Amino acid sequence: MANTDVYSFIDTLVTFSGPTGAFPLTGGVAAEGISITMHMENATTIWGADGSYIHSLIAQKGAEISIKLLKNSLLNELLSVAYNLQKTSSILSGQNIITINSTLGDSIIASGVIFKKLPTVTFAQEAQIMEWTFTAGKAEVVLGAGLS
Q: Beta 13-18 vs 96-101: how paired, if at all?
């Protein structure tokens, strides 16, 4: 029986796959981790002068994904090779998939993923975090309540 009272990032499975390679995003992920932020609100509301209203449901499911890595993570090399190959052709760009599954039952499948840019590279007294950012054309997000 899984313990759903304890969370650990090490129990989260994250993978990157695309036309230039596939690999797990494990090893060297910074404490700040991985973030998924939806692009837009799902609905808007307009009110009339008389108090009437209308809701508009927005169907887009785009998201921003941020992956923060330690400077010495092998993942920086794997992602930079994929980035450099993919920016050579529109046929290779925007075809990536990032999947995230946690033992708490969370499941995120981001498709149509494109690199936004290379991370900022800083050489300083202390090593800096390398933040990779992506735009997903579609993110299917199901948050779990834990496994029983």
A: antiparallel
What separation in angstroms does the CA of 135 have from each of 10, 55, 115? 24, 27, 7
Q: What angle do CA 53, 54, 56 make, to 5 degrees?
A: 150
Reduced to 3 states, what is the DSSP secondary structure of residue 26? coil
Rg value, the chain, Cα? 18
Structure tokens at 67: 């992956």
* CATH architecture assigned to 9-39+55-142: Roll (2.30)
**Rounded distance, CA 128 to CA 71, Å?**
6
**Cβ-Cβ contacts under 8 Å for 65 (sequence gap 6 or more):** 34, 35, 36, 37, 98, 110, 113, 133, 134, 135, 136, 139
Summarised one tens digit per residue, pLDDT across range 67-121 is 999 999 999 999 999 999 999 999 999 999 999 998 888 999 999 999 999 999 9
Nearest to 130 by CA among 67, 72, 80, 69: 69
Q: For residues 17 and 99, what is the distance between their CA atoms, to the nearest angstrom? A: 9
Give the number of residues written for the chain: 148
pTM for the model stands at 0.88
